[in-house]
Design a protein that fits this description.
By secondary structure, the protein is an alpha+beta fold. The protein has 3 domains: 218 residues, no CATH class; 199 residues, no CATH class; 116 residues. The protein is built from 19 helices and 19 strands. Strands 1-2-7-6 form a 4-stranded mixed β-sheet, with helices on one face. The protein has a 3-stranded antiparallel β-sheet with strand order 3-5-4. The chain has a two-stranded antiparallel sheet with strand order 8-9. The longest helix is centred in the middle third of the chain and has 24 residues. The N terminus is likely disordered.
């Protein structure tokens, strides 16, 4: 079950050896020397561990490391600014492992593709740094003194909290001469000598430019609903970035519909993806989806006003690394769902699970088909269910449907398919234009994606499930839906529902009125009985299900079971 059983705390500073030796595996995937041991053992929220293990999910060590740091084209800020920046109220760096763990990023030691020991999911793009998939899609749970790292699982990262922290650090450094002097002295790659006033001015300029962007981003994405740990309004923020590139960031909408980071195993095998099930994987769909994701995590696009179809086919210059996205999707095709590690977590009660299997077949398989994680040719047919059927919080899909903004630079422009853009357009139209432009400018990646789709049989399909069809009178009717998927590995993807509004699988099977109305999110400590993270108390952050976008209603399937059957079904879900 354990792909790599890693060394215990006393040996953390002795990492060495070839990549495929036990010590080499530890060095490549975990070791931060003595600091790694301190971070692992002295967690600020009480979830310390003395050992870290990985599960067997079908990836080799090189695949794992590449996924952690592959450059997708995200350009959050200058690399040197982030690496050298001090925390707002201390001389410790923002990228100090102890600080990163507070935001639930996962520290790593230096490797050839990560020389400054950035945490999982931070990647360099030329002289800039940004995020890559792994920041939000690498999970960790702790049980006893063991931490379990799960590739492709939802992270618990507080991404927007960290963005606010960086903004505060930039402002604090500009306001404090001593901080500014230390920052200027630490900056690498400058031809200016330490102490040269011009070096100080260059440092101040770099900080000021970064702060101006962060001020603009935060102002354009203000919301009364805090996303917190393990969630972000991804679609809302992506569309707001699209609006930034086409007109002005001030034209964006409030991102008040947080979604949990979805799990990634088998994602390339789905016919339709995203929580709303609105994005097809067929043809170049997977590349378009991933290009949109890069836009959301701070990629840059230079939108052009084209006046003919032929001109429009040239597309838009961008920082998006489309060929890397194709390679990442191909790599994800080999990622398997994790299996419950009985050598670390309590063993599954097989008798109880067998009873739960019968309940699953009678209550769950209509929407959540069983899947063989080992089948090389496995495919996933997503079941799309209308919001008025499943009953879960509608804010996410309603925002998607309602999003509209001035066309800005695109007003009167001609698209590659001959469309003339009006004075305003829907957010989805603007996003489609941006993604089409990105892919048109990188035709090699598009061709590779078409070949990939053909190789894996990703053909265009009609949406399956209990949803409304688009009509001439209501062309967006099919968008007011959420996607159900197979539940293999579901035990590693808490909290539950699309907005993370239910802490455990047991709670999800309770009637809505009995589900927790508030609970703590951000702990790595795992509850193997209820199946989810420990959620009592108020540390590090409390999710309030009464707030917009946070409602824990709907998905009442199985909620009429008696408690004995409820526990049997939960036990079975551990086996998937």
């Amino acid at each position: 079950m354990l792909r790599r059983a890693l060394l215990t705390l006393p040996l953390l500073s002795a990492c060495a050896g070839a990549p495929d030796s036990p010590a080499g595996l530890h060095a490549a995937l975990v070791g931060l020397g003595e600091r790694a041991g301190r971070v692992l053992a002295e967690d600020p929220y009480g979830d310390g561990a003395t050992e870290l293990v990985y599960l067997d999910q079908g990836w080799s060590v090189p695949e794992t490391l590449w996924y952690y740091y592959a450059d997708q084209g995200s350009v959050l800020m200058p690399y040197e600014v982030l690496v050298q920046l001090e925390q707002p109220t201390s001389q410790k760096r923002v990228m100090d492992p102890e600080n990163l763990v507070r935001y639930r990023f996962l520290p790593q030691h230096a490797t050839p593709n990560n020389p400054d020991a950035l945490p999982i999911g931070f990647s360099r793009h030329d002289d800039q740094v940004g995020l890559t998939c792994a920041a939000c899609h690498t999970g960790q749970i702790t049980y006893g003194q063991t931490a379990i790292r799960i590739d492709g699982a939802p992270a618990l990262a507080d991404v927007m909290g960290f963005v606010a922290h960086i903004r505060a650090a930039l402002a604090a450094t500009l306001a404090d001469e001593a901080k500014l002097a230390r920052f200027a002295a630490a900056m690498r790659g400058s031809a200016l000598k330490a102490g040269d006033p011009a070096r100080m001015e260059a440092a101040k300029k770099a900080l000021s430019q970064s702060l101006a962007w962060f001020d603009s981003y935060v102002e354009a994405n203000r919301s009364t609903t805090t996303e917190g740990f393990g969630r972000v309004d991804a679609v809302g923020r992506i569309i707001n970035e699209v609006i930034r590139f086409t007109s002005d960031a001030k034209n964006g909408a409030e991102p008040n519909a947080p979604n949990s980071f979805p799990l990634l195993w088998d994602a390339p095998r789905h016919d339709w993806v995203q929580w709303g099930g609105f994005s097809p994987n067929a043809e170049v769909g997977s590349l378009g989806r991933n290009a949109g994701e890069v836009v959301g995590v701070f990629g840059h696009v230079d939108v052009k006003h084209y006046t003919t179809k032929e001109e429009a086919k040239k597309g838009y210059p961008s920082t998006v690394e489309a060929n890397a996205l194709v390679s990442m999707e191909d790599s994800l095709h080999g990622l398997q769902s994790p299996q419950w590690p009985e050598s670390v977590l309590p063993p599954i009660d097989r008798k109880l699970a067998a009873r739960g299997a019968e309940l699953y077949r009678s209550n769950c398989t209509t929407c959540h088909a069983l899947i063989n994680r080992d089948a090389a040719d496995r495919k996933v047919t997503a079941m799309i269910t209308a919001v008025d059927v499943v009953g879960t919080d509608p804010q996410s899909v309603d925002n998607l449907i309602k999003a509209r903004a001035p066309s800005g630079i695109l007003e009167g422009a001609i698209s590659a398919d001959g469309k003339t853009y009006g004075a305003t357009e829907s957010g989805l139209t603007l996003l489609t234009d941006l993604v089409t432009g990105i892919l048109s400018a990188q035709p090699t990646a598009a061709v590779r994606t078409l070949a990939y789709a053909k190789r894996y049989g990703l053909n265009q399909t009609d949406k399956k499930g209990d949803h409304h069809a688009a009509t001439e009178a209501d062309p967006t009717a099919d968008l007011r839906s959420y996607k159900a998927r197979p539940l293999n590995g579901i035990w590693a993807s808490a909290p539950f529902l699309h907005n993370g509004s239910v802490p455990t699988l047991y709670d999800l099977l309770l009637p809505v009125a009995q589900r927790p109305s508030t609970f703590a999110v951000g702990r790595w400590a795992y509850d193997p009985k209820k199946v989810g993270y420990v959620s009592e108390g108020e540390v590090p952050w409390v999710l309030d299900t009464a707030l917009t976008g946070n409602h824990n209603v709907g998905h009442v399937y199985g909620t009429t079971l008696d408690d004995a059957d409820r526990w049997a079904l939960v036990e079975y879900l551990k086996t998937l």
